[in-house]
Amino acid sequence: MDFEEIIYTGTFSKDLKRLQKRFRTLSGDLEVFTKTQLILFHKIKLDNDGIKRVTELPLDYPPVYKAKKFACRSLKGTGANSRISVIYAYLDSEDKIELIEIYYKGDKENENKERLRSYLNKFKTSSPN
Question: What is the DSSP secondary-structure string of 46-106?
Fold first, then answer.
């Protein structure tokens, strides 16, 4: 029931590397997140109110989501309310997840809308007329 492919965009990898210096368990936590919460939401269609679609973007496909419930073991006692958010796109036709941004809400409040627009631009130019 895994996804066909999970891709870390270049900017996501940089975010992850930077955050891992503070939150050492982040790589493992991310793997658990993709194998549990994302599968529950997209494949089993079980919504625990931890993932919301990002709106007001220039394109509707691929849909971009924000996961607010992310359990980070480095932040003991917080459970899924670690204040780490993950922004990703789900390309259902390819059964592919593309991780776009990860951030700690103590550092910044919201996702980078410019980064999302830039990410979506590759779909605008490659879409058939």
Answer: ---S-EEE--S-S--SS-EEEE--B--TTSTT-TTBSSEEEEEEEETTTTEEEEEEEEETT
